[in-house]
Design a protein that fits this description.
The model has no long low-confidence stretch (mean pLDDT 92). With 138 residues, the chain is an all-alpha fold. The chain is 80% helix and 0% strand. Helix 3 packs across helix 4 and helix 4 runs antiparallel to helix 5. It is globular. The N and C termini lie close together (11 Å).
């Protein structure tokens, strides 16, 4: 068992904060499933019920992997790909009139920052696994 040193505590808090929006989003979607399906339909995605279920599984499951440190890299890559796809789907600022563009453009680039953060988490985890073995929690 690991000792909870200040650097480890900071790491866990940082990972929790990085995943906070996905935990909240997954819980909210599960709690109001019909509203989540309606949101999926709003974006014109096919098979909205299935897509909503997959969204909830990805948001919650990948967050748990990241926070728990079990296959952290896999959870981080999953949320990076999910966030990148969702960003191009939901934050298409280039299609908006100039007066409405700023908040959506800002959200677009904030989400790209999250993608970069998740890729760094995956890289760091895979780099560390070279020395520990593939099934050791980080």
């Amino acid at each position: 068992m690991r000792t909870w040193t200040p650097p480890l505590l900071v790491q866990r808090v940082a990972l929790l904060l990085l995943c906070a929006a996905y935990l909240q989003g997954g819980i909210d979607k599960a709690w109001d499933f019909h509203g989540a399906v309606a949101e999926t339909m709003h974006f014109g995605l096919p098979m909205p019920t299935l897509v909503t279920v997959l969204t909830i599984v990805i948001e919650l499951g990948a967050s748990v992997l990241i926070i728990a440190g079990v296959y952290r890299w896999m959870g981080a890559v999953a949320l990076a790909v999910f966030t990148l796809a969702a960003t191009f789907l939901a934050n298409r600022f280039w299609e908006l009139p100039l007066a409405q563009r700023f908040p959506v453009e800002n959200a677009f680039f904030e989400h790209l920052g999250l993608v970069g953060g998740f890729l760094l988490v995956a890289w760091h985890d895979l780099r560390g696994r070279r020395f520990k073995g593939p099934f050791t929690p980080s």
